[in-house]
Amino acid sequence: MSDNNTNRDSFGSKFGVIAATAGSAIGLGNIWRFPYVAGENGGAAFLIIYLGFVLMIGIPVMLSEFFIGRSSQKNVFGAFRRLAPGRPWYLIGLMGVVAAFMILAFYTVVAGWTLEYIYQSLIDGFAGQSASQLNDMYNSFIGSTWRPLLWFFVFMGLTSAIIMAGVHKGIEKYTKILMPVLLLLLLALVIRSVTLPGAGKGLEFLFRPDFSKIGPSTILVALGQSFFSLSIGMGTLITYASYIRKDENLGFTALSVAMADTFIAVLAGVAIFPAVFAFNIEPGSGEGLVYITLPNIFNQMPGGYFFSLIFFILLTVAALTSTISVLEVIVAFFVEELKLKRRIATVIAAGSVSVIGVLCVLSFSSMAETKIFGFTVFQLLDFTSANIFLPLGGLFIVLFVAWYINRKAIDKELSNKGELKAGYIPFYLFVIKFIAPLAIAFIFLQGVGLINF
Ligand code: PHE
Known about the structure:
This protein is mainly α. Helix content is about 75%, strand content about 0%.
């Protein structure tokens, strides 16, 4: 283990670590994906299962990634090679890199939509539009070719620029200010939304469970959403943890990040669903849900112009702090394993992701009828990355830490060589040895239809 790590970039402070990690976790997954997926899967019952997964599976997986990253100080592929030399565990790392390609491709498309919505806010494009006109506006925008493509590339460019600069000076500094502002704006939206006439139905949809709507695939989708939202199962947090200093408390960080992420998702739900019902939008209407609902809410608010503008700017920032964390997985891998310069690695990574990204953009227009297993390219990447790659990655990650790594190394890393108490370790080990892997395996096999209970 004699690689020279002294020149590695690292996060400067405790708050910086939480801001960057929470910045990765909090993003379109909470505000765009959570409401649409919950809407398609019955609402409240989905929410309860989701919360259970965050607690029992998500946090332990997150902590396991922190352990792997910080103890190895390596990219996702190198980490497994260092902790398990000569063993095939590095395949988990490769799978993570593949998942990063898939996620970045479709996620950047949606992030690009957010830029269009900033532009529309700026020119006051939502003003005076009825709910159905806003719906048409969304559909004709995503159904066009050049604008969504343009925004896709702008967003990919922004992400690459930050990654080239290195993480800690840009991101750490800005997320600290911008994330709290996003929270405040979301609260303002919540207040307006729950006071709309007819809002009660939306709250009921989100909070009164109807378990008859739950099937095996719903459960898998809830698991996938919890992984996606927490940024776990593909090595983003392994990569980030490799930049965390040795005196940070990993257990506390995992708990704070998971709680912040979950809180924002629930808040987004409380903002969206009352409006969905108040404006007669179908909760299961898919990827457009948030983009159709939010402008309706803004139109009903005094100062809607400003709220809308600031909100979409912040959503862009939230998305950006997530896309950089995904691109960083690939770039750190290229730099450390293929010995490429950071700039070149970024260009190659962003360039190749963009090829798939273009197909995702066109999934709403000229390639809308090109289906694989009944999914457009966009839907296929969205669905399989979250519901297949991430749960499988998470499964192998916990198995690796629980059954391959020795207990002493875990104690040492999580307690910072005995500096911290970390009394939760026996419970954590029990969960990652038995509960989490069995639960993930079972839900996965059942969800994809390989077993049937
Ligand atoms: N967690 C991010 C979000 O909710 C998305 C993401 C997934 C980021 C996987 C990194 C890895 O928006």
